[in-house]
Amino acid sequence: MAAGWAAMEAPDMASHLRMMAEKGDQPVGFFGGWTLRRTYWNVAFFIPPDVPKDRVALGVVAFDEDYLRKNFLPTMMKDVLTSKSSVLRADANSPVMMIHAPKDSTPWVASANWDGEKPEMERSFADIFPSLVLAIKYQGTTIADIGMKFLRYNYTVLAALCLLMVGGIWLTYRNVSREMNLARLKSDFVANVSHELRTPLALIRLYAETLELGRLTAKEKYQEYFRIIREESERLTALINNILDFSRIEAGRKEYEFKETNLADLVRSTLDSYRFQIEQNGFAFEENISGDIPPVIVDREAIARSLLNLVNNALKYSKDQKYIGVSLYRANSRVNLEVRDRGIGIPANEQEKIFEKFYRCGDPLVHNIKGSGLGLSLVRHIARAHGGDVLVESTPEKGSKFTIALPLDPGLRTAEAAA
Ligand code: ADP
Q1: Percentage of the chain modeled with pLDDT above 70
Q2: Strand partners, 135
Q3: Which of 4, 227, 344, 402 is deepest in the core (most CB within 10 A)?
Q4: Does residue 313 have its Cβ closer than 6 Å to ligand 1?
Q5: End-to-end CA distance of the chain
Q6: How much is the pTM?
Q7: What is the DSSP track for 250-303?
Q8: Measured from the CB, is residue 390 less than 6 Å from ligand 1?
Q9: Distance of CA 363 from the midpoint of ligand 1 (Å)
Q10: 373 lines ligand 1 (CB under 6 A)
Q11: In angstroms, rounded to a whole number, what is the distance separating the alpha carbons of residues 221 and 277?
């Protein structure tokens, strides 16, 4: 008892109790501490209520150490730790507590799971349990660790947001430059097409007028003029067909009429109507049509138009080496229609782009040759609508090989065409 009394002298205690009474509180004072034999004692002094004014009375309650250590304090800790207090809540690591003497950090009372490590925070129990210190920490972690984890999480979120922002900027930039490119290609297209329409029309008019005047005497001249008029009107028809097909595809209205077809016959007859023009232009022409092609379900007109587009390109984009080769052969479950030339070729970095609408290669030579930039995009659309595709192999200055690969299995066609 002597140790506890040393904490506060009797007059102090009396004034303390008096002050509490004046404030309207029930006057209670607690005193306690550690004995030399390391047991904790704690007493409460109070002025009992209803004591007549002419008497002096003081109540004293001493707490049982065993009760404090084994019952009261452990229950109190459990209540605090299991309460829904947001201060103590942690997602993965629950908080733990212990109580110890001020100069000895060995736990006197500890909550379940106290891991014996250094506490994060300590507070002395002020008035009620003098000489006791409450220590608290998170189980298996430290506040610094939790802070670090939080910081890391925030940095990750920040990095993800930055990435999203950069991605967004890049996408916007890509879309804008694509749109600008397309606008430029469209205006080139209009210029090219007007030119392509005007030239054959002018020729047709010129030759028709000459014929009309009847000034020609040689029969061969008549034949030549008729041929030029026919060829130029064929060129006009091909161009207009390409534009019409293109606008139907763009509007999503392009329909194909799939029919069982003898591809060998189709290719042969399409080339026959073109052979004269090819040879007239000084081209060596080679045709290899394999005899084992089974009937294939295709849109005749679309396949013929694709072939004409490829042959026409071979004619347009050849310089001194004038050669066109066309082959039709079976390759596993596909049939390949191949058009080869020994012309100007296509640089590797443009070989994928040539199938985009309006695209024409950057080579100045190409710009001197008339074209709309639609032919190959139509060929690709047609090949894909048949469940196949069109491939290119080309070396600049050496020549190009375009292959339309069509599936023999019509099931494949319907699924891919629908897609
Ligand atoms: P166009 O011939 O009307 O310009 P295409 O869509 O048919 O349009 O072709 C796109 C571009 O691909 C052409 O402008 C040309 O640069 C290139 N190209 C196509 N076929 C060949 C070929 N056989 N040899 C070289 N370049 C070609």
Answers
A1: 91
A2: 98, 122
A3: 402
A4: yes
A5: 93
A6: 0.58
A7: HTT------EEE-HHHHHHHHHHHHHHHHHHTT-EEEEEE-TTPPPEEE-HHHH
A8: no
A9: 11
A10: yes
A11: 17
pLDDT, one tens digit per residue, over 345-387 is 999 999 999 999 888 898 888 888 878 888 999 999 999 999 9
State pLDDT tens for residues 121-143: 899 887 788 889 999 988 878 88
Is 258:413 a contact under the CB 8 Å cutoff?
yes
**86 membership: H or E segment, kind and range:** none
Residue nearest to ligand 1 atom 23, measured at CA: 314
Compute the average pLDDT of residues 60-86: 86
What is the C-alpha to C-alpha distance for residues 199 and 59, in angstroms, rounded to an integer?
122
**Ligand 1 mean position to 310 CA, how many Å?**
9
- Distance (Å) of CA 96 to CA 76, 78, 116, 135, 348: 13, 9, 10, 9, 68
What's the pLDDT tens digit per position in 151-195? 999 999 999 999 999 999 999 999 999 999 888 878 877 877 887
Mutate to test the pocket of ligand 1, among 306, 360, 363, 379 (most ligand atoms within 8 A of CB): 360
Q: How many whole angstroms from 413 Cα to the centroid of ligand 1?
A: 26
Ligand 1 touching residue 382 (CB < 6 A): no
Q: Nearest 5°: phi and psi at 311?
A: -65, -40
User: What Cα–Cα distance (Å) separates residue 400 from each residue in 21, 33, 99?
Assistant: 108, 100, 88
H-helix or E-strand containing 33? strand 28-34
Q: Which CA distances in Å does 300 have to 241, 263, 359?
A: 14, 8, 26
